[in-house]
Amino acid sequence: MKISYNFIDNEVKISYHFIMSENNWKSRWSSEQIRALLVEQFNAFWKLDIGIRRSKLNEVEKTATLPHAVIVSGLRRCGKSTLLAQYAHQIGEDAFYYLNFEDERFLGFQADDASDLFQTLVEIFGERKIFIIDEIQNVPNWEHFVRRFMDLGYKFFVSGSNASLLGSEFGTRLTGRYVVVELFPFSFKEYLRFKEKSHDLKAMDTVECARLQKNFRSYINSGGIPDALKYPEFPLSQVLYKDILYRDIAARYKLSALTELKELAFFLVSNPASCVSFNKLQARLGLGSINTVKSFIEYMENSWLLFSIKRYAYSVKSQQIAPKKIYCIDTGLVNSVGFHFSPDSGKLIENIVFLSLRQFTNDIYYYETQDGCEVDFYLPQQKQLIQVAQRLDRSATRDREVRAIEKSISEIPVKNALILSDKSERDIVIKKIPIHIQSVTEWLLHEKQI
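The structure assignment produced for this chain is given below.
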């Protein structure tokens, strides 16, 4: 399938061209052109600026001795290729083959073409046992050739920008034979390394605290998308947002309702850390049906633009029908794309806390007490409640956050609770449950937060 985009009056018209001829990819390129493509891709990958060491590299390194395929999944342009390049530089230039299926010269490539491509790779680079492949979801039925080569003893490190990489068909064909590494935009700790800022948490005097808060405000505003930080003079977050909508969603799912998709995405990105009802969204935005809303949000989640979490309840049915809370993949993208009368730093901080939690677990809920008090996060495995408050110096704010925790303790299993705010304070105890009050910046800078 070939996809073309036409920009008319600031709108994007998408055309799909389905190419049905057999062996179309091989027929369009000579052997010399294919060889040139493979050498060019390899050299470009090897010469990538590998930047700061990503925290997720530790996970990739741990998978090296496993016979499993390693799937690096995440938002486009969040650094998946760079992460794989960091690993490649550890194993050496002569240890792997590299392929990038985002390259338009691979349009029409099918899983059946893999054997011929492999033969060319061996002719150019000799025999190697590791494949590093970018954007593998662009190859239909790609899991077929991965499974076949894995059975021959080859190791795969592959990246993709769509969470449905791990869909039912793929899971069936590679059951128990893959591990997943999810890559997010820069965490606050990675952002500080990128900006070459350092803070000693053991020596936090007034000046150091002020410096840390200033850097955190910058992180809230700019987010952690590497290219957007590297080239702040260009609107790269807006370009990325359009690529997600038009390429990862509209083109992939063959959508014609572009206006409806854009309106829903814009509303959700403009309201991070907010509860949404599918029924109300359908009525407010005039979308076709509730199923349309559900499908569009699912597509946005698959493309790593948004996340949704459910309200915790003992009944699965209650969880399904309750409003969902929506979070965005990056606060810089929110600030660049969304509409705001004034910046809501409290919601953006909550969004950052969610992203940090999500990197360690996807078992995250919010909780609403029987009389309507809300706790931002509940982690049932840890039996932990987490509240996020921009400041606690106002008694009304403090009372509200503590009251929600106190009421929740009476209704669900809780071992401990955490209030994240602008500064750390002494712990308190409610109904024999310890409540830790910690600076959100210090919490974010610890290796593991839960």
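Interim note for the steering committee: The mean pLDDT is 91. The first helix runs from residue 24 to 28.
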